[in-house]
Prior knowledge:
Elements: H1 6-21, E1 25-28, E2 43-46, E3 53-57, E4 62-66, H2 71-79, E5 83-84, H3 98-104, H4 111-114, E6 121-127, E7 133-137, H5 149-152, E8 162-169, E9 171-172, E10 176-183, H6 186-196, E11 203-209, E12 212-219, H7 221-231, E13 234-235, H8 238-249, E14 263-267, E15 280-283, E16 288-292, H9 297-306, E17 310-315, H10 329-342
Parallel strand pairs: 1-2
Antiparallel strand pairs: 3-4, 4-8, 5-9, 6-7, 6-8, 10-12, 10-13, 11-12, 11-15, 14-16, 14-17, 15-16
Amino acid sequence: MTTIPTEVSHLIETVLHARKTKTSLNIVGGGTKCFYGEEPSGEPCDVRRLSGICSYEPSELVVTARAGTPLEELEAVLAEHNQYLAFEPPRFAKGSTVGGAVAAGLSGPARVGVGSIRDFVLGATMINGKGELLTFGGQVMKNVAGYDVSRLLAGSMGILGVICEVSLKVLPIHSSRITLFIERDEAGALSLLNGLTRQALPVNASAWHDGKLFLRLSGAASAVTEARKRLGGTELEPDEALSWWDAVRDHRHDFFSQSDAPLWRVSVPAVSQPFLAANQLIEWGGALRWLYTDDPIEDVREMASSLGGHATLFRDPHHRSGVFTPPSDALFEIHRNLKQAFDPDGIFNVGRLYPGL
């Protein structure tokens, strides 16, 4: 019989007590993403005691870490073996945790090149609303029978249960990586980015703001060198490039310093032309548009929908409801059924994903 760690037993007792007393729980880790999603509510359920790496097999490209493990700690261990989290989870502040990264489901600048965090989740353990410790997935890519619940946790905002451990696929750090700076207006940058998708170039990430386009090339040295010749532009110094991409990932770039206007995260087809606001930062080859606007929520969503995309009210000083695009009735029913199955008494992060869920 597997022994349940003391920290997990304590969390199970917390869940069982909340269920008995009909108390809502607000699952928290480093608290760096409290602004994201609907307003948190309920008694704090702190998972930071669940910290540390459970297992790491560099040759298998997989690591299992407890939910409260700081991302910086995990990435430092991976770096010792020349490996990293390729999906580049954003931190926003010091103290971001593995569990919080999975629950928020956010990925960084390399999302288009390597995939989202959901693509890297291999397995997980979690405590459901009945106080049961459940295990899903595993530590290899092809071991899932039935529903792939471990990946379902990515972006669930904690409404299904308390994540205890997560197994993640990791990748070797590329042998060559450079960042190019090219001057382009918005239309020119989008045209160039769309053209790059039709070429076999090792473009790992892109970002445009205020007439400046940055392209990160990663891969074999020969491929990066050849792409460098074809694309032109100015090459940034390695330290400057690393600092710049980290600032974009963690929203420390000057663009994200505004605090008096709502920040929108608009996902649209990469071929969409310039729209709406002049003050934008564009990532993911044109598919992700960050913008500030005080326009009504409905207007922004209608604009995104007309282009075949959707909009998330990422950070809002007015704390309005309706952060995520409302799902269709059929999709909301699926969400409701999943919530009922994992959290029958509705105690976890109530309303954090959608009002009424």
